[in-house]
Amino acid sequence: MSIKHLLATLLLTLTTSALALPQVGQPAPDFSAVDSAGKRHQLSDYRGRSVVLEWTNHDCPYVRKHYGAGNMQAQQRDATASDVVWLSIISSAPGKQGHVSGTEADRLTRERTASPSAVLLDESGEVGRLYGAKTTPHMFVIDGDGVLRYMGGIDSIASADAADIARAEPYVRTALAQLQVGQPVQPAVTRPYGCSVKY
Amino acid sequence: MRRILALLSLLLGIAGTALAAPHTVQTEQATLSLVAEHPAYTPGRPLQVGLSFDLIPHWHVYWRNPGDSGEAPRVTWTLPAGWHAGPLQWPVPQRIAVGPFVNYGYERHTLLRSELLPPADFRSAATLKADVSWLVCREECIPQQARLELSLAAATGATTADPRFAAARTAAALPLPGNAVYRLGDTGMRLALSGTDWKPAPDTQIWFAADQWGPVAPSLPQRWTLRDERLELDLPFGDAPPAAGETLSGLLVVSEAGADGTLTRGFELQAQPASGPLAESRVGLAAALLLAFAGGLLLNLMPCVLPVLSIKVLGLVGQRGGHAGRHGVAYAAGVVATFLALAALLAALRAGGAMLGWGFQLQEPLIVVALLYLMLGLAMNLSGVFEMGGGLSGLGQSLTERRGVRGSFATGALAVVVASPCTAPFMGTALGFALTRPTAETLLVFAALAAGFALPMLLLSLFPAWLQRLPAPGPWMERLRRLLAFPLYATAAWLLWVLSQQVAAEALAATLAGAVLLAFGLWWFGQAWQRPLLRRLPVLALLAGSVVCAGYAADLHRRGAEAAPTTATSETWQPQRVAQLRAEGRAVLVNFTAAWCITCKVNERVALRASAVRDAMAANDIAYLTADWTRRDAEITKTLQAYGRSGVPLYLLYPPDGGEPQVLPQLLTAGIVLDAFANLNHPE
User: Fold this and answer.
1) pLDDT tens digits, residue range A155-178?
2) Residue B434: what pLDDT?
3) Is residue A26 part of a domain?
4) pTM of the model
5) What residues of chain A, 8 to 67, have a C-beta less than 8 Å from chain B?
6) What are the structural domains, with CATH classification, of chain B?
7) What is the value of ipTM here, to two decimals?
8) In B, what residues contact A, Cβ < 8 A?
9) pLDDT for position B391
10) What H or E segment, with its residue span, contains residue B190?
11) Are A171 and A157 in contact (CB under 8 A)?
């Protein structure tokens, strides 16, 4: 039993050192993933532009809170209008809640009038684990130099109630605005809230 | 469809507020009730109310810090004018693994309590309203909400209490009985507790959950160690490590094997940052191995080992240029195998729950006696009273024979055995530390110790040229051998002193009688008798005689232990004493406990040693006996089994009238014990 324990510890040490989780102020881990149209996106291709990563799962009540109220779509529109790349990422494993095909993903985007730059399908969970994405939504903001500048919640009130959106501090909007004027991002790390990512 | 129904019922619950909200709401996953401990309130006196969740299997709701994902239940009270509501009191949560994540929460059933305070001048019926929102999850999550309502009249007389509240209070987290500090490291922090006097068994689960998201990663493993009697817990950082000077607050949860099933207790703590980095504490495996290796080298010089090894070296001198290397390797193999066997035995005993440290061999008088006789025998051999030939240990000369390789292996084993009385006081602490590590690491440390121990002899045998400096074999070797007998006599004398600390004078006398018999037997053996029968039979008889003496000594020890003196506050338990006290017509409370049982210690602290309980014991003339199971006393084990328990704690309260004892719960509060005392006088 204790030998198992030791092995588990060893394994964990190995995996955690191999997968050192991203830290604000450090280069964001590079990845590549295929979008709903089958096109491959590589993070490093977007050098020079800010990138937002949004972990999502359309059936999660916390995601529905922000899409139902139009909050997520509005942020996507405003961000992409100022040349920010917005990547929605679905890390749900096949058979798990939120897992969709490319066609379904496109239909969801149409129906919800969402406007991300792309919806990445990460059914292996590879990108999600690389970033330690825990919840839907879980947000990451990367600057033009490829440095991670923000990670955490979409806003400051952890609830599934859409009425809270107006009262909450919109952390991602704030981070993008601060990036645009060259200010340090504050707060840079917050609690991500929502459903667990269904790896 | 069912989900829609559930939603509908929720909506109805909300829409129906204009009328009267129910006190229970049911969704597909959860039944939530607003309950009060008493059906009526007393003005000016606090009243406990609670949100009682009943969940279908596999679904859970969350603790105040939900962990990697999720959301804690929230309540907004609407109370009559002047009423005040305290914060929710969270029961000790479970760790719930969801995929790669860990959540803190509750499955099946939980009661979130809150204390309400009605004003002293409030007399009319009171309607309490609670707007509750909660998230219920399996892997997927559903946010739910309800408005609940409960009406309470002002109390006119005594009311019956809902027993769930008392049970929740009993299981509630306690303040940590001690102090906590933490130190920051590179990837995590180390929480150190002091003043807790906990000595957890190796299989005890101990984990910490921070009150807030951020400082501690819920899903990464935490490991505890016991260092200098202090419990330390390594906590990997979460996404937001504590800033300099920040207090770390949270809940420490201890789960240990109890008398029937796992016992879990929570302790609220606030850890202050300790000055200084985490440097000293990182005595990693590498350092431990190095220390053990050095300790092993040093062990060669110990008085109990040096003579045996010197004789071995003399053997090498006698056969320069022979197959010395092979003997050296065999010897080293014997040393390593024996050390590892001892370590494995110890690890297995500890896994079985015995609270043993290195040096455990010297806690058992029978083993001390056996070592004493072994030392005496070896010393007499060196003194020339008898010769062993090449057989048992190859102590002397016949190393050139083929069987001598086996003999060298045996010498290695023997060296470890004779070294053990010296290792115990010398390296007890260091090896004790090694024993708190996982088994594989423990074995590695012992292997390093063995390597250090075997190295000098191995080198000498591999490079016999180093022995060239020694004079040629001759009579000096025999003289040296006689001289080297004395450190062994000294070791035997020391072991006798160790024994004298453990046993009564009669047992010591029996041991010495056995020693005389053994000496006589060995002398007889050393005589050049012509007839084999004459040679063997009396020796065997005498050796058997000394074994009987040793056994008698151990038996005396046991009886001596039973007659050990008692302390004023708590007597040592024995069945006869219970019978005697009951014959006197006294009530008896027996506390079956063990040094490594945290639940026992906590119960003693919060209940059995509480001043109200002690006063009640005195007032009711209740005798208090303690049965200490730290060393697995057989008599206690029997009693535990008689009550269907496989371990401690067990609390037996014998009534004064000679009736069957009452078994108190495993988690005690002062209230539970006082109620039990009260029932003695007014049996139901």
Assistant:
1) 999 999 999 999 999 999 999 999
2) 65
3) no
4) 0.62
5) 8-9, 12, 16, 59-62
6) 2-168 (2.60.40.1250), 174-273 (2.60.40), 285-502 (no CATH), 571-681 (3.40.30.10)
7) 0.83
8) 68-71, 98-101, 103, 133, 135, 137, 139-143, 213-214, 220-221, 223, 239-240, 347, 351, 438-441
9) 37
10) strand B188-194
11) no
